[in-house]
Batch of 2 targets.
Target 1
Amino acid sequence: EVQLVESGGGLVQPGGSLRVSCTASGFTFSNYWMTWVRQAPGKGLEWVANIKYDGTEKDYVDSMKGRFTISRDNAKNSLYLQMSSLRAEDTAVYYCARVAAIGADYSKYRWFDSWGQGTLVTVSS
Amino acid sequence: DIVMTQSPDSLAVSLGERATINCKSSQSVLYSSNNKNFLAWYQQKPGQRPKLLFYWASTRESGVPDRFSGSGSGTDFTLTISSLQAEDVAVYYCHQYYSSPFSFGPGTKVDIK
């Protein structure tokens, strides 16, 4: 069974930094593109970033480029999102999700087939 | 960037009745080389994580009840619940994975009338 478990959320002051993590199990993590999606309280879903299975390619939404860094450690089956220069509008639940594959065809242009439960990041003084 | 819109913002339907949600993309998400629409639908129940319902616009994910159907092509898509059940109360999102930055519609909230 695919499982994704986020951790590391919490309260951080404006301008501060935080790293959230996602630990994967139940599948061969190193084969899959992974992604982060966030959801502000009471709002919709917003795609944040994705990363190739080997970590060599990364994509970000423009509004987070330069402030957020996605990374992974395949030996630890873990995905990370390092966030800096945090603002109140970054307050959200951060979900990690697996990018679907079709057989042995792993592409970033796929839907998100499994999601974690999310971790809440609150930016406030 | 592709902008996704959904209509209506919310709807209330009687149990057993049909619910229809529309999704529109600002440019086509149909990829000509494989004739597939790079469009997915998710359901998010209150307090839960999103759950995949459809991909390629109309391919039902395993385990999704067949009262749910997805249709459309190019820029216009529809999610239909043929006979609304109480457990279908949720927010529904469309998602384009045709080009980066990937994007979601703003969501449609479905309630019981």
Note: DSSP finds no helices and 13 strands in chain B.
Target 2
Amino acid sequence: DAGVIQSPRHEVTEMGQEVTLRCKPISGHNSLFWYRQTMMRGLELLIYFNNNVPIDDSGMPEDRFSAKMPNASFSTLKIQPSEPRDSAVYFCASNTGQGELQPQHFGDGTRLSIL
Amino acid sequence: QKEVEQNSGPLSVPEGAIASLNCTYSDRGSQSFFWYRQYSGKSPELIMSIYSNGDKEDGRFTAQLNKASQYVSLLIRDSQPSDSATYLCAVNPTGSGNTGKLIFGQGTTLQVKP
């Protein structure tokens, strides 16, 4: 079975540009999570969805960040305008959303560099 | 106080030794706990889950949970150089319902020396 698929794998862009990260969760998974990982702050939960509905976006750093999940098989995380401090690895993860005993499965991540 | 705390390490052990990784959490109502391994430049991958007090063994890995002390640990027996990675402890917080939300620790870097 295909795992969580993220694109692009790498993104290098200049400050001020719009960045869109994409994620396809595992088929049948009802919960989707966006994380940001840096050396300083570790793995931070930005936002998560359950049945395509945003449940908790308290981790989104500021209004420059937005996320959508228009259907069960696709989600985007957008940064506009981007800043150098947004440089990090962004992971998407999914799980069945059917109970607290279910682990999360991670995609390969997007390594974002803002110049 | 951080919700999930781990010693960042690095923890260095010789090949063949037992590596002991520790994690404490602040949410007393948490019911499920996970250990993820993350190789440099890769994504986290699940290696163990534990829900009940006591020990759970899977091959060379043993997870230990003590809810009264809010403590979960991972033991790796017969450590191999290929075990060198960062190990992330994750806890399912109360109030997250069935969504499967996890809070991650900062991770402990393990180095197994040949």
Note: Chain B has a mean pLDDT of 93.
